[in-house]
Amino acid sequence: MPTISKALLNSVEQLAGQAGEAIMQVYRRGFEVELKADNSPLTEADKAAHVRIARGLQTLTPKVPILSEEDTQSFKGANAEGLYWLVDPLDGTKEFIKRNDEFTVNIALIAQGKPVLGVVVAPALQLTYLAAEGLGAFKVNADGQWQAIQASLPPQVGRPWRVLGSRSHPDPRMAAWLEALGEYETQPMGSSLKSCFIAEGKADVYPRFGPTSLWDTGAAQAIVEQAGGQVVTLDDQPLSYANPQQLLNPDFIVWGQRTSEKCIETRK
């Protein structure tokens, strides 16, 4: 198993940053949009970022297989140690096409079904979040320094829940869930940035109803968990990556720190 270290995390951060640069080259000059077999959009930027990341990870950890959204066929499963890289070269392709800047590069290391390292880069917004088990969770500030981040405690009485929702994937079940939550205010947002904002303490909860894939959540989950938050299914089990042949996630909730009775009640 590669040693989970600051050096490894730094290498993955640099690789995600390079993929972000490749994406921005396409973003600035215009692009055509294809449709994949599932009718999801694909652009030249998705492909360029995938190639950059796949080559970099193969050099960095040649014995760790890679599951990327843009190359699921080459992935034959985790290695003998239960390890694999989980990659979304361009998360939020719809946001990329809309040119609202809310798209990310996601790279996670999965060990025994759990994300133990994650990097999320939002190149158009110049935001980077990263975390690793035993090291903590960080946001990279303007001068390139890692600043530790922590998820917020649940809101005190009198303050509404700060809820993040999907910008491009609304779901009617959200309304019923929010009604049970109590007083709240919502903000729509694209890509894995929603989970990163939970990790940073900028929001309290992100409920996700409807389809997502493993690569949409792995990197951000590592960041949320190392920042003291949780990513759990509706029956309150951690979102798992132990069966990568099952590419779709169940519905899930991203919480900040969960210590209050109110927080416990809302998830029943």
What does this structure look like?
The chain has helices at 6-29, 44-60, 93-98, 173-181, 193-200, 214-226, 261-266, and strands at 33-35, 41-43, 66-68, 83-91, 104-111, 114-122, 127-132, 136-140, 146-148, 161-166, 184-189, 205-208, 230-233, 252-255. With 268 residues, it is of the alpha+beta class. The chain has two domains: 6-148, Fructose-1,6-Bisphosphatase, subunit A, domain 1 (Fructose-1,6-Bisphosphatase, Chain A, domain 1), CATH 3.30.540.10; 161-266, D-Maltodextrin-Binding Protein, domain 2 (3-Layer(aba) Sandwich), CATH 3.40.190. A seven-stranded mixed β-sheet has the order 3-4-5-6-7-8-9, sandwiched between helices. Strands 12-14-13 form a three-stranded antiparallel β-sheet, covered by helices on one side. The protein is globular, with a radius of gyration of 18 Å.
